[in-house]
Write a structure and sequence with these properties.
Chains A, B: Keywords: Flavoprotein, FMN, Monooxygenase, Oxidoreductase. 2 copies of one chain form a homodimer. By secondary structure, chain A is of the alpha/beta class. Chain A is 44% helix and 13% strand. Chain A is built from 16 helices and 11 strands. The interface between A and B is large, with 48 and 48 residues.
């Protein structure tokens, strides 16, 4: 395909792949798409390692990095150092108690929250200071896009990217947010519908994409949310999108580092098995429905904390849950889950990431051909 | 267009228009689409009148009727006669009290609930007996489709339609429901995403349509939910739909009998201004967010009743609210609302229904052309 976005980003097919796994990023980039590494879970040192590995495996082909700069950070965390220890100190006693009882109820060994024991734990990257360090590392590599989830990128991020000649993308869930992002200097908008995995709003892709396209034209818009097949990609482009941004579909690829217990839950799940819940990060995020989401959103819960406190709590707990689930603990299996969109119902087999790209290209072509046959008939 | 659905239903463009307003039904049918009259609010006598009027205005062109056969009717109503008086007697005192306080709080004159004073009030049509009577009236006219919302049509409805040579359509929100509908003998499936107005599930159109298409092939599927423009129609057909089913978009047409106060709220609303709430019918139904939905779903509410009790309560209250709002009562204006999908954000001008059809045809053609330019480029 020779679209404006393909030309601008040096790709053959306007499919952007968001993944926390470097192997997926490299595989999609090498297959003619555009891999974007989700950096929020990494320390600057670890991100440096990952990007060096990607540089060594894509032969100069284009890829990008995604950071998460939260617009409003929980007050308790804002004053702190942004380090995990400081964040943990801000978690109320009531929430520690609920967490301990939850582990008891499901027969899972209690998790340990000791910063020294867990270097690289999620947490730092979601504070403004943490995000800035990640941006610096990212811009020291030959990336071709830097993306920001949750709120407009801070001016220093836009300036640093401009200086490095790197376009800035931003995820939005409403037309109003898209307008603000463009005013903040963003070059590429990802319009993400409420069916998406992870942090998401409530407006569906079908409605959001045309609204955002009309609002920000001529800035190009990628469609995100619920998209895992080539016919959905054709649909997104019929809506006016210049390409698509997919996250969930890579979780069940061969390359994905998704824990086996989570991968098997994802493969078995239908499109009804997700829920938009604050229980994993403190902000509404779509994920697999599990005992974790049901308990935190249930009547006996003290309610999830804000971001990043709930994220720190949940990620520490989830590491323990996943570990226990992998040893066959049935309660841990019930609690285990992960961010995923409603398209999980369409993810029913394990394929190499490269193959997902090729399948989408073929399905896309078929969908266009079918549409043409309808209108010519 | 010469698609299978166009051939089968004798139409030029596979756009099905659901409306409670006979003028919209006739206008769409006369413009080359397929109008479907929503009959749930009508008594059999009134439906007879409406269909006679349509017959006189479409010159033999095809149209259909939609009835609402609830799968599970509220127990309190099931034993009753299905008449409005019997239903009202089953409303708990707590709910009458909440309703009275709500009217006080917003400064709206109290509504009267007296069956004798309000012949033709909503209520009867949503019981099984009521629905059966409507089906009988519908089948005595030259209709080309009978549709059933909420649950598989009862066997006698399918048999009666078959005997009359009329295809049966059903609205579904999940692939599993689509499978059950086909097993019940349905000829045409409407896959309705969670962004739709009215009774709706949670799976978005982008995800639901391909799932349902794959599940029921070769039964044709219409896409519904969020669709108000031709590019969205092209998107739906890229997903594998054989056409679309639109409801919301007709509410702001010239012909629509939407009360002026509601029409102006719809024209001003953005895609963020809807909510899926049980406050209007007892089942989750997407509608304009209003003081009515906020209060019933708020912390001081006794909680909405089941269907059809909440529907009887809400419709009686809404008649009074709309009447007061039209006289300029500001509290009533806050309470006023109506069923509408997220595409309300795309409904920003009043057009004749005929013009909506023509605009969709043109936008559809443009979208296909744009897609072809992308892939040929």
């Amino acid at each position: 395909m020779r679209t404006e976005v393909c030309e601008r980003f040096g790709i053959e097919f306007p499919l952007f792949a968001f993944s926390h796994c470097r192997d997926v990023v490299a595989a999609v980039t090498n297959a003619g798409g555009f891999g974007v590494l989700g950096a929020v879970a990494y320390t600057p040192e670890r991100l440096e390692e990952e990007l060096r590995w990607i540089d060594d495996h894509v032969g100069g082909r284009p890829y990008g990095v995604d950071v998460l700069v939260p617009g409003r950070i929980d007050k308790a965390a804002r004053g702190g150092s942004g380090e995990l220890g400081g964040l943990l100190a801000a978690v109320p006693e009531e929430h520690w108690k609920f967490l301990a009882e939850l582990f008891d109820k499901y027969g899972v060994p209690q998790p340990e929250f000791d910063r020294a024991a867990r270097p690289g734990a999620r947490g730092p990257g979601v504070t403004e200071r943490g995000a800035t360090e990640l941006v610096e590392v990212a811009l020291s590599h030959p990336i071709r896009l830097i993306a920001s989830a949750l709120g407009p990128p801070p001016p220093h991020m836009v300036e640093a990217a401009r200086a490095a000649g790197v376009p800035v993308a931003a995820l939005v869930g409403t037309a109003e947010h898209a307008r603000r992002q463009v005013a903040a200097g963003v070059d590429l908008i990802v319009a993400q519908g409420g069916e998406a995995g992870g942090h998401t709003g409530e407006i569906s892709t079908m409605v959001l994409v045309p609204e955002v396209v009309d609002t920000v034209a001529p800035i190009p818009v990628l469609a995100a949310g619920g998209i895992a097949t080539g016919r959905q990609m054709a649909a997104a482009m019929a809506l006016g999108a210049s390409g698509v941004w997919c996250g969930s579909v890579w979780l069940t690829t061969e390359e994905a580092e998704t824990p086996p217990v989570v991968k098997s839950k994802l493969l078995a799940a239908t499109s009804r098995d997700t829920v938009r819940s604050r229980s994993r990060t403190g902000k509404p995020a779509r994920q697999l429905r599990s005992a974790w989401t049901e308990e935190w959103d249930g009547p006996d819960s003290p309610g999830p904390l804000g971001m990043p406190l709930q994220m720190v709590l949940a990620e520490g707990a989830m590491r323990q849950i996943t570990k226990a689930a992998e040893t066959g603990n049935p309660g841990a299996r019930e609690l285990a889950g992960y961010f995923v969109g409603q398209c999980v119902g369409l993810m029913n087999s394990v394929r190499p990431a490269r193959q997902v790209v090729y399948d989408m290209i073929e399905e896309f072509a078929d969908a266009i051909e079918r549409l043409n046959a309808l209108t010519e008939g």
